[in-house]
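Our consortium's second objective concerns turning raw sequence data into structural hypotheses that experimental partners can test. To show how far this objective has progressed, the report includes one record in full. It was chosen at random from the queue rather than selected for favorable results. The single chain below, 445 residues long, was entered without modification.
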Amino acid sequence: MIRLAGLTIPTLFLATAAFAQQAGEPVLKGAAAFGDWHADKPGVRRLIRPEDLPKPYVTKSASNGAGLVERPQGAKPQLPPGFSAEMIASGIDNPRAVRVAPNGDLFVADSEANQIRIYRLGEGSAKPAASGIFAGSLNQPYGIAFYPPGDDPQWVYVANSDSIVRFSYHSGDLKASGEPEPIVDGIPSNHHWTRDIAFSPDGKTMYLSVGSGSNAAEDMDNEPTGGLDAWVKSKPLGAAWGSEDGRADVLAFDPDGKNGRIVATGLRNCSGMTVQPATGALWCVVNERDALGDNVPFEYATSVKDGAFYGWPWYYIGDNEDPRHKGERPDLAGKATIPDVLMQAHSAPLNITFYTGKSFPAEYDGDAFVALHGSWNRGNRTGYKVVRLKFRDGKATGEYEDFITGFVVSNGDVWGRPVGVAVAHDGALIVTEDGNGTIWRITHE
C-alpha cells in the first residue's frame, strides 16, 4: 500500500448536521441498501433481509483493494450532530482490537508489532496521562479479555494467532510483571489469523473464535477420512474436516484451557466477539466468503447459539448453496441458522461492542457498534465506517445505521480502516483504525 503525503481535503470530513439523515427519510431496503461509499453518511439506515440476497455471479468477482494515503490535514471522522472526535494516539503500527480494563485503562492489540499497548486517559480527556507497552514478544495478538469478569481481574488473557496466553494482572498495572502463561496452544494460524476471546458472565467459559483456513474450503477433501457418515455421527452439526478441522468455529474452554469443545460451526471468520450485557448472549461479527459477486453473500452479526451451524462452506445466509460445493452436503440443507443482522457484502466487520455508557443519547442504550474494515472484493467500495446496530428490548431489529464515516478519500484511496470498538467508563466510544494507525475518542456534547 502507498501513502501519499500532503493531501488536504478537510471539507470531506466536517461533522455537521448536513450529514445526518433527514427526518422521515425511509430506511434503505433491498437493492437500495447496496450502495457504495458515496452514499454513506451518519444517519443513513439500512435493513437487509435474507430474501434480498442476489444470485451468485450476477457480477464478476472484483479485485479492488484500497490504496492508503496519509490522513489529510485536519481530517476527522464524520459523526452525527452533537458528537465529536478527538485523537488519542497516532503512528501506531497496526492497532486492532481495543478493550477497556475495569479501572478504565485502554488495552490495544498492536498486532503486526506483536505487542499489547496500554493507554490511561486523563479525566474527560483524549490525552493519555500515561501510555506504554503492556506486553511484547507475542504472535499477532488480537483478542484481549480480563479474568475473572468483574471489578478485580487477576489475569489478562491474550489471543495470539496460534495460542492463548495470560499475564498476571493487578488493577492499574501498566506493564506485565511476568512471562506469559500458555493456556491453549496448537491453534492453526494460516489465512484468517484474527483470534478473538471472551468470557461468559459467570466466568466459567472462555470462548475463542477461529476463522477458516481458506476462502471457501477449496483445498478440503470431498469426504473426511473414514467417510462422511461416520464423521456426521461423531462431530457437531456442520463441522468441517481435513485442513479446516476445528476452523470456522467458535470454541469453548474452561478458563485454564481444558475441556475444549465446539460451540458453533460454519462461521467463516468471526473476527470479533462480545457478550451482550442485557442477555448474556455471545455475539459474533463475521466476514463471509468472496468471489461470488459484488453483493453475495451478506456479511453479518449474530448471536451465537450453542450447537448451531451457520453455513460455511456449503451454504450461506440460510439455505443458499454455494455453487462451488453444489450437491456435496444435501444432509445440511435447511439446517443453517440465519444470522440476526445482515450487512452489505464485503464490508469486512471486525469488532463489535454493546453501548453500556450513559453519555450518549438514551436511544443508544443497548445498541451495538460494529467496525467495518472495508471492501476489496467489490467493484464499488463499501465499508470503511462504524455502524450502529439497532436493538429493541434486547433483540436486534435487523436495521443498522451509519455512525462514523469519512475515511474514504476517493474511489481509489482511503486514510482509515476501522477495526476496534469499545466503550470507555465515561461513556465515550473508543475506535481504532489501522490505515494511519490512529485511536479516537468519540463523545457527545
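The partners drew two points from this record. Residues 228-234 form the longest helix (7 residues). The chain has one domain: 10-444. Both points have been shared with the crystallography group to help prioritize constructs.
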